[in-house]
Write a structure and sequence with these properties.
Blueprint lengths: L3 E5 L23 H12 L3 E6 L4 H12 L4 E6 L21 H6 L9 E5 L2 E2 L2 H12 L7 E8 L10 E9 L2 E14 L2 E6 L2 E4 L5 E9 L2 H17 L9 H10 L4 E5 L6 E2 L5 H14 L9
Parallel strand pairs: 1-2, 1-4, 2-3, 6-12
Antiparallel strand pairs: 4-11, 5-13, 6-11, 7-8, 7-11, 8-9, 9-10
Helix pairs in contact: 1-4
């Protein structure tokens, strides 16, 4: 059974200053999403599901339906603030969706096979899709031996501002814990993160999650009660979000799932800030020069 790729593209990119999901970084007008789907197709994924917000779905579909027609099966779904359990009301002043785990949950009716989850604005590299596809193809639909692709922290920083990363602890290649660290940056040869206005040194060799996960449809059943509990507690909160690492940690601690940490030689880069775009264009051009990608994908 060919796995599905679930792309989380509903964010508005507040730090970036625009709709970066569709920003062009390839020489023939390709976005990072184009490269992600291209890598997924050649790794053996059979379908791609895009989770979008109402502000961009029409423009998004007008671009990608034409590009991907006949290449891979596609689905386009909305992550809406109102998509919460019945009987619960939320603060009408809220404008942000409910987070990455909620974005996964809204796709439950569109995915019946093992699937990978990625961010729309992260360039994960060809090898990452290959190793994930191989792992997912070996799973049954009820398996709870999930997975993630891990990257070295030092290879995931931005030169243009701080980043947030999920710092991973593993044992025998299985994830034990993931802790979100915010305001990570390089300074005087060290990598630091700030917590309560205190600077802390962290190793650049630390393995981090870049939100490249592998699951089976069993996850949807495991998530639903947690999401209901989350919404009941946070329905009036304007900023609270239901994150994938929260779900993963809870499953690990309850011994209801394992997370295999997959490694590859893939290069990760992204566009957290608008200033990251130029370096991203340069890195894509280098990969094209090496023959890893054609100058025109489609």
């Amino acid at each position: 059974m060919d796995p599905t790729l679930l792309i989380l593209a509903a964010g508005l990119g507040s730090r970036y200053g625009g709709i970066k999901q569709m920003d062009q970084i390839g020489p023939s007008g390709e976005s990072i999403i184009d490269y992600s789907v291209y890598d997924a197709i050649r790794a053996g994924f059979g379908k791609v599901v895009f989770v979008l917000n109402p502000n961009i779905i029409d423009d998004f579909r007008s671009i990608y339906e034409a590009r991907l027609k006949g290449r891979i099966t596609t689905e386009y779904i909305l992550q809406e603030i109102s998509d919460i359990p019945s009987g619960i009301s939320f603060n009408p002043g809220r404008i942000k969706p409910w987070g990455t785990a909620h974005a996964v949950l809204v796709a439950k009716n569109y995915i019946q096979e093992p699937f990978a989850v990625i961010n729309a604005d992260d360039f994960y590299g060809k090898e990452a899709y290959s190793v994930m596809a191989s792992y997912l193809k070996a799973l049954s639909l009820d398996d709870t031996d999930y997975s993630m692709v891990g990257y070295r922290l030092k290879n995931t920083l931005s030169e243009n501002g701080t980043v947030s990363r999920g710092i991973c602890t593993s044992d025998n290649q299985f994830l034990v814990d993931i802790v979100e660290r915010t305001r990570i940056y390089s300074e005087n040869g060290n990598i630091l993160f700030e917590e309560n206005d205190v600077k802390n040194i962290i190793s650049g060799e630390s393995v981090v999650s870049m939100n490249f996960w592998g699951f089976t449809p069993r996850l949807f059943v495991q998530m639903e009660n947690d999401f209901r509990n989350f919404i009941e507690k946070n329905s009036t909160n304007l900023k609270a979000e239901f994150y994938i690492p929260f779900v993963v940690n809870k499953l690990i601690n309850a011994k209801k799932a394992g997370i295999k940490v997959l490694t590859s030689e893939a290069s990760w880069f992204g566009v957290t800030y608008k200033e990251d775009k130029d370096s991203t264009i340069e890195k894509v051009a280098m990969l094209i020069d090496k023959g890893i990608y054609p100058a025109k994908l489609w």
